[in-house]
Each structure stands twice: as structure tokens, then as C-alpha cells.
Amino acid sequence: MDGFARRRAKKEQQIIAAAKKLFMAYGVQKVAITEIAQEARVSQVTIYNYFKNKHRLVYEVILAMMEESAQMFVDIVYSDQAFPEKMKQMMAYKIEISQKINEEFYHYMMKEYVKPGGQLETFMQEKIMKHWHVLLAEGRAYGYIDPTISDEAILFYFEMMRDCVRQQEVYQKILPLTEDITKLFFYGLIGKSRDEGNTTS
């Protein structure tokens, strides 16, 4: 990559970071290109030259967030932490994001994600699913996952949840329930096991 390309890439990331900060705080509709330009310390012309329009910029912000989320997931999967700690860290990350994101931006993001055959969904499938197999194998090997439950069944369960969230009437209601749903996903109805720190007797 030559000097010009490096400068352009750096400026693009600068704009994406500024737009993400504003979208997370205020949503998409309430944030103008002029505000993004001011936050990124670039001209409006530069933003339009790089991203053509606001919709494309929003898409690139969402893609960057998904890449960040995917990398976080991979880092956790291959870390030296014990399986329960990995689960806790994933849960904490998901809850933290849900508490920070503007609701209107979340709905906008979900509309992009659920488009049939959309690049965002394909990206996440390619980046995430193969690593889930690694994590499930670890959990099963150390006795944290019921060995009688197959990967196919678990991944089918993931797909059912994903297909449910694709429905507009669902994703419009799910954000305030993220913490509870995440706990249900990781711990089920029974709650934490004794290995997870449930020491009451």
C-alpha cells in the first residue's frame, strides 16, 4: 500500500469511527453529514468522495462494528480462559453493546442485517460459525456442554433464534430484553450451575 492509499484508508477509518460514535449516541436520522465531518475533522466533500452517500457510510459503520464483534468473539474463543469465563465475557460484551447503542440505530442495523441474502449476514456466518464448532468442542470436552446434544442441534437452535430476530416485530422489541435473553441463551431456565459460582446450599 503506497502513501496515498494509506492516508486514504486512515481517513476512511477516521470518518467511520466518528460516524459510529454519533450513531451510537443519537441514531442515524438525527445525525447530519455536517456533524460527522466536524467530528472526524474532515470536509463534507471528503465524506461524499469516500462513501458517496449517507446510507453507504451507515453500511460501512455497521460492517466495521460486525468485524469488531467477530474479532472479539475469535479472541475469546482462542484465549487461555476457562470455558465458563469465555461464556461470561461473551455475555458481558453483548450486554454492554446493547446498553450503549441508540435504539433507532439498532433498528436501522437490524433492517440491514435481515435483508435476504444480504452481505452482512453472509459476513457474520463466514466469520463466526466455524469458530462456534471449536468453542462447542471445548465446552463438551470439559463437561460444560451436555455430550448428548449434537453441534447440529445447537447450531439449529442458533438459526431458529436468528430467524426469529429477523422479524421486524421481534427486533423492534428485543433491545430492552437483551440482558435477560442473553442469560437465557447461556444458562437456560435453570440458571447458573454450581461450577458457575452458585454456592448457595
TrEMBL record:
Gene3D superfamilies: Tetracycline Repressor, domain 2. Residues 9-69 form the HTH tetR-type domain. InterPro entries: Homeodomain-like_sf, HTH-type_Tx_Regulator, HTH_TetR. It comes from the Bacteria. Residues 32-51 bind DNA. Keywords: DNA-binding, Repressor. GO terms for molecular function: DNA binding. PROSITE patterns: HTH_TETR_2. PANTHER family: ACREF/ENVCD OPERON REPRESSOR-RELATED, TRANSCRIPTIONAL REGULATOR, TETR FAMILY. This is Transcriptional regulator, TetR family.
